[in-house]
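User: Okay, second chain of the day. Same drill as before: sequence in, C-alpha cells out.
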Amino acid sequence: MYSITEVSEQLGIKAHTLRYYEKEGIIEPDRNSYGVRKYKDSHVTWLKFVKKLRETEMPIAQIKEYVKLVQEGDHTTLERLHLLEDHRSYIRNQIQELKETEEMLDKKVRTYKEWIVKQGS
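Assistant: Same drill. C-alpha cells below.
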C-alpha cells in the first residue's frame, strides 16, 4: 500500500490532482482506520493509464464515462472499446498533424541554413 505522497512522487502527479480524481470518481483509494488514503498496486496501474489518457488530451468527462462503463460491468465492453478507439483515432490525427508541422519546420530550417551558407561565401 502506498500513501498519496508516494503515489504522487511515483507518477509525477500532484497530490491535489489525485484528490481531484477521487472527487470526480475516477479513483477510489482505500482508507486506513484513520481515514488516510492508501493506494494498492492496482490503483497505481489505473492511475498510470489515466495519466496517459490525460497526456493525450482525453477530457475528464470522457475518462469519467469510461469509469462509469467499467463499473456497470462486462455488458459495457463494446461501449468501452468504442470510446478507446475514438480516442486512438484522435491521437493518430494529432500525430499526423505533428508530422506535417515537423516537415514544414524542417523545410524552413533547411532554407535558413542554405541562406546562411550563401551569405558566408
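The beta strands are 30-31, 37-38.

User: Thanks, on to the next one.
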